[in-house]
Every structure is written in C-alpha cells, then in structure tokens.
Amino acid sequence: MTVLIVDTYSLFFRAFYALPPMNTLAGEPTQALYGFSTLLLKLLREEKPEGVAFAIDRPEPTFRHEAYADYKGTRDAVPSDLARQFRTLERLLDALGFPRFSVRGFEADDVLATLSTELRARGQNVLVATGDRDMLQLVCPEVAVLFMGQRGKPAKLYDEAAVLERFGIPPARLPVYAALVGDTSDNIPKVKGIGPVAAAKLAQQFADISTLLHHADQITPPRLRAIIETHGEQLTSSELLIRLRHDVPLPEVPRHAALTAEAVERTVALFEELEFKSLVPRLRALAAR
Q1: 219 CB-near residues (< 8 Å, 6+ apart)
Q2: 2-167+245-287: CATH superfamily
Q3: pTM, whole model, 2 decimals?
C-alpha cells in the first residue's frame, strides 16, 4: 500500500490560478478551496492510499532565507482573494483529520523529504503530490512524485525512469543539475555559460557540488573548467538552497491516517457551507467503498 503525502500550499496555489473566480452567494472567494478539494478527492479515489499526510509551509523565514537573503525574492505578493481562503483551508484540513506537519525553520519541501525517508524506512511506498519540481530529487524505487502541471496540462507521474528520460540523470543528481542551471521560481542564479546539456553531463559525472569542485581538474574542455572554478562559491550556495533536508525534527505523532467516517461527515458539512454541492456525493462515495 502507498501513503500519499501532499505539498499543501503548492497545490492550493495552483488550484487558485487554474480556475476562474468562484464565490459563495455571500461573496466569499472559493476557487482555491474548490480546486484543492477536487484534486484531493480525485487522488483518494484513484490512488486508494493507505493513509494521507499534509506538509505545510510556515510563515517565518527558513534556513535558506538566512543563507541567501534573495531566496524566492522575485515572487509576487499573495492575491487578496487567495489570502482570504487560507483560514478556510485550515478548517478543511481540520475536518479531514489527516496529520499535518509544519516545522519552524524548514520548508514543506524538507518536511516532505523527511516524511518520505521515514516512511521508506518503515517499508512503505510513498506518492508525493506537488507542483514543485524540487520534489523530483526524492524519486527512488519506493517514492514516486505526481507533478501537477500548469493550467491545462495533465499531471505527470515521475518514477526513476521518467526522471532519467526527462533530465538524462538519476533523481539523486538533480541538485547538481539545478545548481548549474539555476531556478527562476526560487530566484537561484544560473551559471552563465552552462546550458542544460552541459549541466546534465556534469551531474552524470559528479554526485554533488563538493565533488565537482574538488575534481574540477577532470572537467573538459578547459573553458568549461574555468567557468566552474570561477563560480565555485555560487555553486556551493545554490546547492545548499536546492538540496532537500531529510533530517527535519518532526513531532511524535502518527505519520499518516486514513479517511474516517467522522471526517467525511465533518467535511461534508463544510462543503455544504462552501456550496460545493457537486463534491458531496464524490466524498460520500469514498466513505462507501
């Protein structure tokens, strides 16, 4: 059986931008809530997980912000219609009753990495539902990532073969690749003069940035070696930002839980309040299985 772990805010944000504006009769915006709920019910119906857990970002700066002041510095402010839906999202998560993990100083990404590592150690398979490509570095025989594409694009399931086909390198080497090509969504700079093809070749050759820099004399041609040596400090900093942490101190609570009949009734009541009439029979169908 598989445990589903959810990158909560990633999917919530994507739901907001994927749907046209929606409001209750009283004028409260609901499209992020509706899209998130629809996706979660679909995952529960199709994947039939043994249990579910949510990972959530905290509002405080993380160790990445302390290491790099401009981390995620290019992101726009949260739209007011989305911000108004966060309090109700908390109510939705309360109603569903699945464990929630959020740890000061770390991102939800690191929480997901730590959860997946712990669950693997217990012999369980894991499915990570996310809209963040950073999660692909977690893929291994026991962990798959369901990546939610942009509006109009279907979700894609990434196992080891899919990551290798997409990037030309195994999942564990993705932090090296990303440190070289940068990540505009997180405001992590690329190394000028190195494109995706060269980055993939270097990631095939070296497991991490420290090894890459230590063995820079093995890099050819000389032009590429000079670029790497010039950007050594930047590469070290970028890898710190990109590589997920697997040692987050999670609270001593169950790592996942199944959907209960009581949770279904609580969630039905909230769906009715939010005027999500079409979702009520879908939720009840899950309880009837």
Answers
A1: 202, 212, 225, 228
A2: 5'-nuclease (3.40.50.1010)
A3: 0.94
